[in-house]
Amino acid sequence: MKTVLSALVISSFVAAPAFAIEPIKGSINFDGPSQETLSKTPVGSVLKHQFTSNGNDYVEIYVVGADGRPELVSRTISNNS
Questions:
Q1: How far apart (Å, rounded) are the C-alpha atoms in residues 81 and 79?
Q2: Which candidate among 10, 50, 63, 65 keeps its CA 20 to 30 Å from the CA of 19?
Q3: What predicted TM-score, i.e. pTM, was given to this entire model?
Q4: How far apart are CA 20 and CA 72, in angstroms?
């Protein structure tokens, strides 16, 4: 499972510039890139963020970048409320 997740994360870094996901209201980086860094979190760590926006429940996956900032790599709608 870890191998599959690692492959997914690595492949998302390659595809991310071509298919950038725009933040929506509720995203961690909605108001632009955060100036705060996750200094104690290892680079490459995966973060999961769940929130509701416009009546939909979303799940976003972030990866901590080399600069310590979370980078949005995936978003799914977990239901259509």
A1: 6
A2: 50
A3: 0.67
A4: 8
Q: Classify residue 26 as left (phi > 0), alpha (psi -120 to 50) or beta.
A: left
With a cut of 80, say whether residue 32 has pLDDT above it: no
Instruction: Scan for tokens 């973060």, then name that residue.
Output: 47
Q: What is the mean pLDDT of the chain?
A: 79
- Residues in contact with 63: Cβ distance below 8 Å, sequence separation at least 6, in sequence order: 9, 12, 13, 44, 45, 46, 47, 70, 71, 73
Work out whether strand 46-53 and strand 56-64 pair parallel, antiparallel, or are unpaired: antiparallel
Pair type for strands 56-64 and 70-80 = antiparallel
